[in-house]
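ping. complex inputs:
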Amino acid sequence: MTQQADLARPAPPEMVIDALSAPFWAAARERRLELQRCQDCGLFIHLPRPVCRRCGSFRLEFEPVSGRGSVYSFTETRRVFHPFFADRVPYLLASIELAEQTDLRMLSNLVGIAEPDVRFGMPVEVTFEDLSADLTIPVFAPAGSLA
Amino acid sequence: MRGGRRVAIVGVGYSDAGRRTGLSERHHAAQAARAALADAGLESADIDGLTTWGGNPIDFAHMLGFSPLRWHLDVGISPAFISPAIHAAHAVASGQADVVVAMRVILQQPSRANLWAGGTGMAFDAQFQHPFGDLMPAQWAGLLTNRYLHESDATEEDFANFAVTQRGYAANNPEALLREPLTAEDYLAAPYISKPLRLLDCDYPCDSGAAVIFTTEQRARDLRQKPVFVEATALSAIHDMTFELLPDMVRTSPVHCLQELWSNTDLTAADLDCAQLYDGFSVITLQWLEALGVCEPGQAGPFVSSGGTSLTGALPTNTDGGACNVGRRHGANFCIEATRQLRGGQSGERQVADAEVALWANAVGPFTGAMLLTGS
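pong. complex structure:
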């Protein structure tokens, strides 16, 4: 999938969605967070892969997750590395530990909070942001802050 | 190295490195290789193996008159220069070749232009990074640095002192690209790139070529330089290339890499006279210092601030000034500096007295490598 540039706004960075990852992005488009899970041993796997690294099974399916987690680490980007993000700088990147499984991490953005207020380990919950007509990303906000 | 022939480093060389030199990969490769041959006192016909990250080993070999080769390896994304170096050393040890050149050729990347054109750099999973604005290594380094600051006793002032110490070494290195005096205030006044990572926590992009020649102990005895011996090597990979998803951002691949390294030698960290520890971002060197056990866990920041890495400290570290100052030679500088330190008398004002054992190590996070060198 490639986003088309329009005159008003630069397109997001080009990205290639493959057959393995398509269910993740399709679910996000419908404002659901779904991750790959091994149907034999139960391990959640992110990023999407063709095989379970714990048991070797190829029976992997996407399943909904709670969208709850905590902040493992975060950083505030101060530079414009791509024109799409020019009016977003500074913005927060974070490694989120999801509630479902120890060490199950997701790279995302923190929204609805300023950098000085972020705490390591603070609880967060998923919300969704439309980047373009056909791309929605799961992002995270402080738990309880979403109406 | 246990098993096989004993291996020595006999030649080292750089190209005319600098900011946007306008020279091609082949120029930098040719300059670096010729410099290493001259350093060793070898002829083109002596070379029978070549490996590189950057450019192509077969192309470089023919250009330089090394053909025919009986061993070659095109190294892809790896822990900087350590992979070509380790593979070259083991090719000699195993007898696949007798005189091998290992190279790292790297041009200053027009990073933003590359991204804007749709390039993905080193990202294997760009679709899970780029839409979130996660586009550059400085950003995963921001995540690692922040978690390190959270878990350790280090402060921003310790990071400032790290930059100042490195620049102090660089002032005594004519090959460093940045040599003017630096103060902690200068560091703290430099902008954040990805807070808490600052500009002066990042290596200095440049165009460069570096070459290191490995051969047998027997051949080394007849050459121009005092041989420096490869005592042990180790490679490690603990995760895929998504630094952002590392389950533990503080104790990463250096811990595993050094377990492997020390299992391959009777020497220990206490035997080190100097260490050359990757500094693509400041936090990387701090992780290596803690993995080495030269200070207690979480104490690398205070260790640096109290002079532990200085020339008179417990472990002189990054004595060429590091990639923050010599430029992004991508780890090759640490091999070359370790070699010069062990030859003795080739590191000028930054020479570690009577240096006999040196470690150089590359990369962090998912993957690393390390090589232990001795002077006799």
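The radius of gyration of chain A is 16 Å.
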